[in-house]
Amino acid sequence: MRRKTSLVLLALAVFFAALSPLLRWYAFPRLAKIPANQYQDMVLEAKDATLLDYGTMTAKKVPKVTIVQTLKGDVAASEKIEKTAGRDVVVWDGLSYVQGPDGRMVSEIPERYIFDAHSQAPVHAPGEMVDGDPVKRTGIEFKWPFLTEKRDYEYFDAQTRTTNPIHYEGTRTFRGVPVYYFEQTVPWTQVPFPKTMPVKGITPETVAKTGTTRWYTTVRRFWVEPLTGAPVYGEEIHKEELRGGTLLGGREKVTAFAGHVKMREDYIEHTVDLVKSNRLLVLLMTSYLPWGFATLGVLLLLLALWLEARSRRPHPAKVREPEPVTA
Fold first, then answer.
1. Dihedrals phi, psi of 134, to nearest 5 degrees
2. What pLDDT, on a 0 to 100 scale, did the predictor assign at position 324?
3. b (16+ CB within 10 A) / e for 78-101
4. How confident is the model at residue 168 (pLDDT cuts 50, 70, 90)?
5. Which of 37, 128, 178, 218 has its CA 20 to 30 A from that of 295?
6. How confident is the model at residue 93 (pLDDT cuts 50, 70, 90)?
7. CA-wise closest residue to 95 among 122, 75, 67
8. Cα separation of 53 and 229, whole Å?
9. 8 φ, ψ to 5°?
10. Which strands sit side by side in the sheet containing 133-134, from one edge to the other?
11. CA distances from residue 5 to 64, 302, 304, 306 in whole angstroms, order as listed
C-alpha cells in the first residue's frame, strides 16, 4: 500500500514541478492582456494656469484648466484587424478634451491607438490617427508593458506626432505601491493647430494664412506599477505658445497655455485601488502560484521518497510464543 501511495505522490510531484514554469513562462504571456472592450476616463487639472483669451489675444491667469481624457475600446475594429494581424489587438479611441474655468472648450484632440494586447507594441492598421491625421506610431503610449523593466522606453507624443525616449529615473513608492518613475522632456517643437478651434469660424487653415504658428513643450512624468505596467499617477509641465504672424499684432509670441497638469485626487484614489487589485492577479501568475507549485512539488517528492524508503525496510521476524509444557 505504501508503494502505491509513494508512486502517486511522485506523479503529483512531477506534475506540480512541471506546472510551475509552464504557468510563469507559457500561460502568463498568453493570458495577460488588455481587454478589447476596456473603457476608462481620467480628469486632470492645472491650477493657477495661464490661458490665451482668444477674444483679446492676450494671455491671462486663470484659477483652473481641466483636461478630460477618455479611452474606449472598439471591439468590432479589434476583431477586424486581428484577422489580418494574426494576434490579439486592442483598438482604443481616445479623446483629450480641454476646458477653461468657464466650462468652455479650449481644444479637443481625438486619437485612434492600435496596439498588441499582450506587449502593448503598436500595430499599424488603417485608422491609426491623431486628430484626423494618419500616423504610424513607434514606442508605447498610455501604458507600459506587463513586467516593466528598469530601463528607458520610447514614448509617443500625440502633439508632435513623434517618439522620444522616456527615461527610467528610479524606484519609488506611491500611496503604498512600489513604482518605477519615468520622465520625458519634449523640447520646443512646432505642432499643428487642433482641427476643432475654440472660436467659431476660425479654422487651422485661416490661422495658417496669418503666418502664426503653434509651438509646444512638455515635461512628462509617470509613476508606473511595474507588474501591470499601469501608471498609478501622471503629470505634465505643459507649455504652448503662438509665434509670429499678423494674428499677434506684431508681437513675437504669446502664451496659449501654461500649467502644471496633475491628476485629480478622486481619480488618483480610484487608479491606485484598481492597479492594486490587478497587481495581485499578476503576482499570482508570476510569483505566488509558480513558487507555490514548485515548493509543493519538492515536498511531495520528499514525502514519496520517505514512503518508498519505509516500504523497503525489512520487517522484524515474528517471535513465536513458547508452547506449554505437558507431562
1. -60, 140
2. 62
3. bebbbeeeeebbbbbbbebbbbbe
4. very high
5. 178
6. very high
7. 67
8. 39
9. -65, -45
10. 133-134, 129-130, 105-116, 89-99, 58-73, 39-53, 253-263, 230-243, 213-225, 177-191, 162-174, 153-157
11. 72, 13, 7, 11
